[in-house]
Write a structure and sequence with these properties.
The protein is mostly beta strands. The chain has 11 helices and 40 strands. A motif (TonB C-terminal box) lies at residues 846-863.
Amino acid sequence: MKFTRFGGAFSARNAMLAGVAVAAITLPAAAMAQDADASVEAEQEAEVSTSGYDSTIVVTASKRETTLQETPISVSVTSGETLERAQIRDLSDLQTVAPSLRVSQLQSSANTTFIIRGFGNGANNAGIEPSVGVFIDGIYRSRSAAQIGDLANVQRIEVLRGPQSTLFGKNASAGVISVITREPQFEFGGGVSATYGNFNQIAVKADVTGPLTDTIAVSLDGNINKRDGYVDVPNLGAEINNRDRWGLRGQVLIEPSSDLKIRAIGDFSRIDEECCYAGNVVAGPTVPALFAVGGALVPEDLFSDTTFLNILPSNEIDSYGGSVQIDYETGPFSITSISAYRGLSSFGLQDVDFSSADVVNQATDQNIDTLSQELRIASDFDGPFNFLLGGFYFNEKVDQTGQLITGDDARPFFSLLAGNPLVFNGVEAALGLPQNSIFSPGLLTDEAYSLDNEAFSVFGTLDFEVTDRLTLTAGFNYTKDKKDFTANMTAFDELGQINLVDAFIAGAIGSRDPAVIAAFAGANPAVFGQIASLAVNPATNPLLGLAAFQFQPPFLNVPNAVEDGKTSDSDFSYTLRAAYDVSDNINVYATYATGFKASSVNLSRDSRPLAGDYTPGPLLSGILAPSSPIRDAGIATPNLNTGTRFAGPEDAIVYEVGLKAQFDRMGFNLALFDQTLKGFQSNIFTGTGFALANAGKQSTRGFEFDATLNPTDPLVITFALTYLDPIFDSFPNSAVGDLTGQRPSGISEFSIATSATYTHELGASGNVLIARVDFSHESNVNLTNGLPAFGPSAEQLFRMEANLLNGALIFKMDNGFEVGVWGRNLTDDRFITTVFDGVAQSGTVSGYPNQPRTYGVTAGFKF
């Protein structure tokens, strides 16, 4: 077996027997799950070994077998053993062992955002592909709802930092999370484990593997995870933020010869949970009106874990699919083909005013179908040159429907805010609307969106060994991406259908007919000018005070006569790297890389025409609007404003230098980087929806350091530190104002992850006692770049600091049985993870808290 030169020489046999039970260690540049051929038997041997720490681990991050020290980039790896010991069941907990990764859980089980080095987006809008790509066994999972299920039979998880282009067909501009699971074995074996924890948690996992013939092996694994909610809803006699999920996966491995391997995987998982709790952080001036209509909430006590709702939130997610990977070796060439289908169905129902008053609820139903095909060839020459060349095809269809539903308490609630219980009756009479039509119970919006995405890419790398110690690498990725989308919405907000400036002008002229108004303006320009001036003046137009109650104006559907509902992007990205072996123990590297993510589409009710297609008049007046393509086409709707239909591509650039050192019983890695995303796709909540926009430029400078120390045979200590200094270099048109020069919210300056694992042998019995403790820290950071009610001061008002302590004590017997106790967030450290404007409640702020302390006992048996 030949290894690409970057580190001291060693035998393949010794490498395959290396231990993998370490966390937060630098790994290769572009790990791909489908090449995870490292020996499972060697891993199991390393899990119980007390003979010291060995860093010579074989990995396949560069899509070839290389070693940990050989590969020149900054990555974190978490082994399957660490996942089990630390009770990390899904990707949302992974941030406690990978300090450059941050995971944000939002309003439902399907809305999770992954952030690496301060860059990340994608949740809350099905038209946005995440900047951090998630791959499971080499298959791209395009949306967070398909990524967050419980992890089963995992060999390791790799978190790759920075743009990944030259080894991944599906480009990711901020980084990659790659999950590698164990493949079927030709030796019969398996295991089962059961957990009982607080909140009545019951979790069971089981797997079995073995041969059918000398050339065919199979495996089957399944898991179930149930837990009561920890947030009380007293008025409904229920609890939310529960766990109720299960999954099943089967695999077939066919090896008819030493040159050919076929791996087929089929899986299905389901989540059916009541999530997620958003509590009150600031009780604004609208809260007394909620109480006056009989509603209730817990004001400004987020960590009481108590809420009042008029309906329980519902999250139902089905994720399923299948893949076939074929690996064939012929001479010095290896050929790999990966074909996959993924399906995702997600339904959510939520009370979005987060009170027991029946004001407004939201329902969303998504269906996503994805087909992908990857084909690549890699060389293994003895000479100085080696290459990898691949192609990737991606086809996805997204269908989403949704509704906002006005409740029985909406009209009395907004009437109280207006200061008069009968105010809307008078408005209806003045505007010619049916009585009791404004904020009447029923549909407020009926929405339907679709997106068809087709993309292909060609990618590859070329390695040139200049000397035994110096290797130069060049890589490229050419991507072509096309999207066709539709956005259709019917808004039933009677008040929102009327522009208040235009209503005043129509009343003054005595006609609502556009032709009559235009004729009057042409014949009497001076008089019309006076009427227009009065119409936009709050002192002379009393209707303007109603603008705050116009929540859902009519929607201009796409495509239309001006907007075709299409995007088309192409990009050539590349990587240049030099790696040098200072000695057999010390390696250095320098990398310059670019990355790319195609345009994202605003599949939401906040989708609005670009400024170049429409120019609204004063106070969104249609009558006073100047000439524009949409106005001249006669398709403008009342109260039409500008915004985005889509956000343009993200372009990433990173400069990185690193040092890797490995000695007897210790090793450390250091990476310094300067990373920039031009056109970062920002998705900001505005109080009634999400605004999608490109930041002109966002950059982050920093460093990542991690170390592993094995001072004595039984003890392994890990430490990882990330320092980030991000800034919006240019973002003048954000949804909350000009953010140029500000630090992006939610990105801690320092993040730390450290652990200690002590394995004590109990005599000569082969039994061991394993103690593990880990601690993660995120330094104090602002949670928002601004909220409308608070302005820039919101940055200092809403902040968080995280200090999470986890631990486990496991008794592991030589016969395969083990039992242990564990705890996560042992100190019950509580903090706010996200804040946002209250829905239709100006001055109110809501937030999501982190999870409280959990603990339990786990027993298992491996055979």
